[in-house]
Amino acid sequence: MEVFNIYLPIAGIEFNILILVAIGFCVGTLGGFFGVGGAWIVTPALNIFGFNMPFAIGTDLAHIFGKSIIATKKHSRLGNVDWRLGLFSIVGSIAGIEAGKRFVLMLERTGDVGTVVRWVYMVFLFGLGLYMVYDYISAMRIQKKLDREEGGDRQPVEVTAPMAVRLRRITIPPMIALPASGITQISFWVVFLIFLLTGFLSGFMGVGGGFILLPALIYMVGCPTTVAVGTSLLSVCFMSGYGCFTYSLSGRTELTAAMLMLIGAAVGAQIGVMATKYIKGYGIRLLFAVMIIFAGISVALKQAQEVLDIAVMKTLAAYFVMGSAGSMTILIFVRLLLGLRKENNNH
Hints:
By secondary structure, this protein is mainly alpha-helical.
């Protein structure tokens, strides 16, 4: 496989082209389907395979920017983008990204950046994943109860999360309306703080903000899942574009690697977006929860290798992160094919 290795001059390492394209394709599919940049897979994967953490973050942001443009355009055609809400994301996210980037560079000077970022990843990935599994199980229990009482076997109807209901009661002006999300009014400052937080995480963790923004839009703003997916990608475009720019100014972006990942991502994003037509609502939430828990396990394995100095842990983490991403990609592709087949039979 060494024949496919190329030298990456900015990062100063050799890397396999096929690995970069494969990472791009898997994360493109997952990103188009979940509305996320996929950095919770790409940044740890690049770090596991040999990138220094700041280079992994900067390179991933460049790849996310290009891929998110493709996926957002596709979601817009399906009516899944709240452009008004997405444009509000610019206000808070840029300030947050700048603060996050400065914090990473400060940690880089102390030599602790890799460990700190991995621990933050684990807390957010496991926390969000377990909460979304709990939310899915609760929704299924309620739906089964309704089916027993009223008869029938229907898909669960999405309800506005309790936290979103409480946040909408905050009436600090100015109040804004988000018709595409079905929201008559919400305080601008609630939206601002959500994007400020996700912007900080984008700059600090090398994420487009999507893996925390998607649950935030669902559980805090109260967007329908499919609209949250498309709007999250629009926000990821803004945040990752600015993040890529600011990391490039610091010399931490390997553009050759980003372009190779984008080749695979361009194809995968089309598949992921199309799959949202056939897997909706709570189905998307459950698969998202499973995926980020798997990503958290891979980061935990990498951290265990650093602490215990067991070389096999690094290899195991690399295979786990790509294996879980590949498995979820195959699952989404199969569900897409089954949906297309069913649609053709109905016609």
